[in-house]
Structure formats: C-alpha cells, structure tokens
Amino acid sequence: YDNTDSPYSHAPLFQIRQPSASMEHLLASIHANHTTPRPHFLYASSHRITMDNLHNSHSQSHSQHGQNHEWGASPKSSTQPQPKDTQYHLHSASGLVDETLARSYHALHNIYSVGLRLSTIYGPWGDPRDDIYSLAEHAVSTWHNTTDPQLLFDSPDNVQTDNYLYVQDAVDSIIAAMQYRQEHDIPALFDIVSPQTFSLSTASNIMNQYKLTNTANDATTIDRKLKRSKYIQNENVNHNNNPNNEPLLLANTQNTQQYLNWTSQTSFHEGIMKLLAWHLDKAHPYGPPLQSHQTDDDASSFSETGNDFLSRHNAPLCAPDDKLCLQTTHVFPCASECAPASSSVCNPSAFDTVRDIVVDVTDGCDIAVLSQSLGQDVTDIARPMEFIEETTTAGLLPCNVFFVPKESQIVKTVISMVPPAAFQKIGIEGELLDITAPTEEQMDQLNGRLVHKGWILVWMDNAMTPLSHADSNLLKLSPGRFLHPNVKYAMYLEPYFASSPNIEDITFLVSEMSRKKSSNSHNKKLTWRDDTKSRRATLLTAQLETSTDPSHHTSLYDATKLMTKDMGGDPNKKEKGPSPTRQQRMFYERIISVVNKADLRSTFEPVRRYEIKNYNYIKSGWLLHDMTLNKARHLRCEWYEEHSRWESNLDQLTFAHIMASGELERKFVLDEPDDNVLAAMPKETDAHEWHELLYEGEAAEYEREHYKRKSLEDDVENHEELEDTLEDGEKDSTVRFCARVMSGDVIREERKLWTHIQNSRNKQKKAKK
C-alpha cells in the first residue's frame, strides 16, 4: 500500500536509490567486521549492463554516420522510450551502481566481492508481474481450450528477444560463485546467461505446442545430484592469471565456464515445460477431483497434473525419496486421496491391501463411520455401535468400519463365534473352514464380512507394530480413497473418544453441515444463530473448551496442554529432548511474532494479523467430513500435509494453524474489515464458528490483481465499481464453504432445536395417519 501523499513514494530514481542504500549498508557492515577472514560477499547484478554497453557501442558507431538515437533505444525503435524499456534501464542502472560501490569499497577498504550479472530469471515461484509467469498462468487457466489455443499475438513488445535463465541454473551459478576466490582478492564479475535469446511470442508458441501435443522436441534429463556435487568439490577454485590485479570482468559464457565451471543446463523448451507443470500443480495441488466430488469450483474441467503433463512429454519424474529433486513437494501415501490416482510419485501404505475391501464394504452407504485400533493386540471393542441395515427416516444408511491388526486376538475370537451356516452365505463351506487356523485365502474372504458389536471388521497385515505417522493419520484426515463414490459423509471416531454416537446423534450432526440464509434473522428464540449467509460445512467438529471467560485468550502453550489432556495424555509430562509437538508449537509462536510486527508497515495498510484464537482450537475425538465437495478434500489434504510434515501427535494444533493462516489470507483476498474493526464488532452469534474458505480461483485472482494496485484510494474505487456491477440477488445468494467448529453451548442449543423440530414432524405424521 502506497502513501500517495508522500513526495518520495514515486520519485523518478527511487528504484535506484533504495537498492543502492541496501548495498552500501551490507558493504559497510563487512567493513565494520574485523574478524579474519572476512565474509565472502556475493551480490546479484544485471546482465542488461553488458547488453547496454554493447548497444551503446553500436549506437555510437551509428552516430558517427549522422544517426543519433536516444540512450538505450534501438536503431529501429522510436526515440520515445517505452515504459518497459525504462524499467529495464532503471534495473540496469541499479546494478551498475552496485558494481561501482563494490569496486569502491575494494579500493578503499580492500573488501573482496563477486558479482553475478544475471539475465532474466524465470521458473517456479516467480514474480506474478513477470511476463513468462503470466503467460504460463494463462496457459493453465485455458488448459483445455483447443478452439483458440493462441496465448497472445505478435506485437512489437512480444517479438523483442531477451535472455531467459531458468531459476535452477541461477541457483547453481550462485553455489559455484560462492566457492570462487581470486588469488589476490580482486573483485570479480561474471555474466550468467543462457546460450540463446527468445521472445515472448516464442514462449507463447512453445506453451501452445506443449498443450496440444504429446511429445517434446527438446526435453533432456538432468542429474542434479551430479551437477551439484561437481560444485561442492571445486571449493576455493583459483584460476586467476591477472598479474596487474585489475578488476576481473568475464563478459562471455566461455570465460564464465572456465572460471566458475558453470554453464546453463536447462534449455528454454525444458524450462517452459517445467514451469507449466509447476503451474498445473499450483492451480490444483492435490490433483483432479475424485469421482464423487461435485464441481464446487473451477476444477470441473481439470484432468491433468504436473506429473501427468511431464509424463506425456517423456520428461523424467522425481523419485518419492529424492528430496533434492522434489524440493518442497510433499509425497503422500498412494492410498491417500491427496495423491492423484495417476501419480507414480507416492509412498506405499499399510492400507494398500485393504483399500478395495473398504470401498466394497461402503457401497450403498450414505455415511461411513470409521475407527481404528492398530499397532497393538486388540482383544475387544470397547464402544459398540448401532448396526443399521435399512435406510433411516432421515434418508441415511450408515456403515460402521473398524480397522484392526490381522494377527490380533479379536479376529480369532470373532471368527470362532460365527456358526458354520453363516460361512456358507459368503461361499465358504463350514467343514472346510478350520476355526482355529483358517487359511490365508479364507481370511481374505472373511475380511470385511464379519460384524462385531455393530462394527464391520477390516483386518490389516503387519499392523501389530506402530504405523508410520502418515499411515496413522490417513483414515482420520484423508479417507476419501477408501470410500465408495456414493458415500456422502465420513465420520471418524478416535479410540479414546468417550462414547459411541447413535443414529440420532449422527443425523443431527449431518443436519448441522449446512445452513440456509434466513429472512427471519432477528428471531428472539434463536439469538445464537447467524443466518445472514448461506453456508455449507466441509468439515464439522467440536471446539476445545479453553476458558469459561470468552474474553480470555488461551496461549498456544496452554492450549497444547489442554489438547494433550483431552486425548488422555499427561499434560504435565516433560519430554526429553526437542519433541515434534514442542517444535511445532514453538514454530507457530514464532510466526505470530514475525508476521504481526508493525515496524515496517505503512500506516495506510489495514491491520491484519496472524492470530490463533480460542475458536480455532478443536477436540478432534470425532470429525465429520463432507465427501462430495472438492473444496472439502482440499481442506483435508492441506491439514494432512501440514500435519505429516511435523510428525507430531496433536492434529488439533495443526488445524488451529491451518484456520489462522486461512483466515489471514481470506481477509486480504475478500478485502474484509481489518482486525481493529472486527475487534469492536460484537460476537453474540455463532458466525465466528463458520471458518469461511476461499474458492479455488479467488486466491489466484487476488494474486494477479494485487500487483496492479496503485493506491488505497484506487482499491476503494475498484471495490465500489465491483459492487455496482452485481445485482442485489448476486450479492447474497452465494453459498460460502466453511469449516465449522461448534462450541459446546451451540451444540446443546442446536440439539434442542433439532429435537423439537423432529418431534413436531413426528406428531404431524401421526396426525396424518
């Protein structure tokens, strides 16, 4: 946000003065550091300095023949510089000032430095204002548009060539330069460029070619491990043959390769292919929607992941255990709904052998109730469930599935209790079945067929030992791939949960998964309800009871103890060493202290903080998932991914972070009132218990529009124009998807209301009969 009243915010040379001041501060700090040896100082400059020098030399040769041109303008262009040209020259001038400062500090204080004249960098995690980034994003947004595949048409700006360097090559050059040292500590400059130049029009044609064809002409395999190890072995490389101790300028790729042992490894075609794959995964990080999902967002036409795209063009994929290649990409279990079905980059799971069995068991069910007791010998099920074989009056048919180890005592006990006549129903002859020692084939036939205390038993191989962290949370946080596409809801119950819900409890919770907008929002009997919006919950759970005083904020430290106690653990037990839970909690506390700093914030910027509030803390003894929405799967996968990275025992702590970070992002994207305004608003209803989630395209749209803003006044005008274009009905008819965390008071009030409505309906049915 800009201060439009300040005369300095849009000063002509602000883009030169600001980075040069930072450069001088760094050099001055090195000069003030009297330790030996001094730090190795490496800085980035601009390859456009070299291009401008060559261009100015070319312009001077033309001026000798009576042809005069503006500074930096090509002979064929107009004398009036274009805005983009001006931006390029400012960037070039800023780099030239940095180089001058580096040489000056060497002359005055003998400070050694290495400068890299980097060409235009493109690739994943780029600047949304970058042309290549925007082209790739647009290509992905129109991925299946084959009627008009052209991304852009040729124009004077698009046919101008530039040198593009893939981001991984830029990183490799920095690693190489960090290990370069001249013999006499003379400042060095290197041009870091790719062998060829391309135009935006060429980039557009390459993207169209990749979209519409199945083979790539220029895709190569790169062994990054060998490439990086080559630089690591070349520590303190010394190739200096400069007897006059002159500042060394290596302005060609041959000398750069000789001194740094570096060359660009990624061709432009290959870099564009990797960028498109990254944008595909960025738009839909967890792959296409499952078969059962409704098209609640713009994912309806999406069917290809980044790995699918790379495979289609015969490009190499990362191995699941190659962290260097994967970088920040998380690898899910193959049985998880978060791993695309076509993906080969996934980890095997202990549930792989029973997934198809559970899908078959849940066929015909509306809601699946899941629980597990794995990693130990199970003798019995403590909490029985009500087994229902016919659809209830509410139109729900539940299926209760309990997962146990195959070798546990309960499996043997339940098999021994089944009469021989029952085995014949499922195709096993009684006399052929040895109750004491059934064969492996017979065990497989019985798996998912036996009911004990209302639970359908599913046993797993090699599950007597503790499961991996990813597998132990798979059923709870990512159950989508285990269920038949007809299943609408999935309810997970923790083994430590106090009681089992009956069919009325389940029906009530399902009814709380949505709420329609009501015109009678001022009903005095429903004071806790907020009916100003139509909402649909992707997830439903209970709020952790932290304090009787609503105004009292519970810290992460105290909340962690309450979560541990709720799970049946000892909150006062001190763990030896840095436990994953403690590291996770301290990291989230650090986020609060860093993100909420106001030192560098403009006074014109709205106050929006990262805050984990009391209503973000949950009791995850039971969870109710909506299995029909892709947005619900996206939330589950986001939760599952974050929790798997930490490998802690408190998924409630991870959920609190997901809600807090999502709330912060939503405030910016939807331009909600800032925190000071929200704090003054009364919280007399349950509106804060509905954590609104962003639609698939809202965050991307905000990212594109954010960089186009000029001032806060422009934001207000644009918002007012948008409001004017919407009809009154459009403003209020949108259903917002939410994660709902119900407090104990609201659950009790809603249950009373639901019971009253059910009793009234039953009386009306009896009266009609």
Secondary structure elements and their pairing?
Layout: H1 14-32, E1 41-46, H2 48-63, H3 83-109, E2 113-118, E3 120-122, H4 131-141, E4 161-162, E5 164-166, H5 167-178, E6 188-192, E7 198-199, H6 200-212, H7 224-233, E8 248-250, H8 253-260, H9 268-283, H10 306-312, H11 323-326, H12 355-361, E9 367-372, E10 398-405, H13 409-417, H14 420-425, H15 440-446, E11 451-452, E12 455-460, H16 469-472, H17 474-477, E13 489-493, H18 503-511, E14 514-515, E15 534-543, H19 556-566, H20 580-595, E16 618-626, H21 630-646, H22 651-669, H23 675-680, E17 690-692, H24 698-706, H25 712-725, H26 728-732, E18 735-742, H27 744-768
Parallel strand pairs: 1-2, 2-6, 3-5, 6-8, 9-10, 9-13, 10-12, 15-18
Antiparallel strand pairs: 4-7, 11-12, 13-16, 14-15, 15-16, 17-18
Structure explained in plain terms:
By secondary structure, the chain is α/β, with parallel strands linked by helices. A hairpin with a 2-residue loop joins β11 and β12.
